[in-house]
TrEMBL record:
Residue span(s) of domain Guanylate kinase-like: 9-192
Native organism taxonomy: Bacteria, Bacillati, Actinomycetota, Actinomycetes, Bifidobacteriales
Organism expressing this protein natively: Bifidobacterium crudilactis
Function of the protein: Essential for recycling GMP and indirectly, cGMP.
The name this protein goes by in its record: Guanylate kinase
Localization terms from the record: Cytoplasm
GO CC, alphabetical: cytosol
Length: 196
């Protein structure tokens, strides 16, 4: 096993701008490598068509989210696009890592930064991966083609994406999502180095 100096496996954190295809790449990765465990985040936003509670996200209301946060149950939390809270439940992440199961978080930029803040205090070794679009124009097209946001929401997400793209240099690894298959293969290469 390839383990860190502390003897623990490294957590893989995948982030990138909105609509870059994080979820699609992660789904492709899991189809090819079902042994990978992807953390399920909690969120206060409403489910989109086809999303399942406990599978896609843990859908909770603002009151329950605040209670979980107060109890220290999250690795990280963030208010995303000033619209909804998201958080990564800590306990299942630690359980999977301690069992030697390849563990990945697919989160937004704010969440990745909060993981960086808490990683040392929790004794977590982390490799940070940034998924980038081939171009900003490609990102605009992807967001429009999703059809999951109205025009105002799309504009908010694009403004956020500009800021997120500027942070690419903060990450250990950058993968360009030119094709889903290629990006998933590159992500597996990162994971397999940590859990081979």
């Amino acid at each position: 096993m390839n383990e860190s100096a502390s003897g623990k496996h490294r957590l893989v954190v995948l982030t990138g701008p909105t609509a870059v295809g994080k979820g699609t790449v992660e789904a492709q990765l899991r189809a090819a490598h079902p042994e990978v465990w992807v953390s399920v985040s909690a969120t206060t936003r409403a489910p989109r068509p086809g999303e399942l509670h406990g599978v896609t996200y843990w859908f909770v209301d603002e009151q329950e989210f605040a209670a979980m946060e107060k109890r220290g149950e999250f690795l990280e939390t963030a208010l995303v696009h000033n619209m909804a809270h998201y958080g990564t439940p800590l306990k299942p992440v630690l359980e999977h890592m301690n069992a030697g199961i390849p563990t990945i978080l697919e989160i937004d930029l704010q969440g990745a930064r909060r993981v960086k803040e808490r990683a040392a205090e929790l004794g977590l070794d982390v490799v940070y991966v940034f998924l980038a679009p081939p171009s900003f124009e490609d990102l605009i097209a992807r967001l429009a083609s999703r059809g999951t946001e109205n025009e105002e929401q799309r504009q908010k997400r694009l403004e956020t994406a500009k800021v997120e793209l500027a942070s690419e240099g903060e990450y250990d690894v950058v993968i360009t999502n030119d094709t889903v298959e290629h990006a998933a293969e590159e992500l597996w290469n990162v994971i397999s180095r940590e859990y081979a």
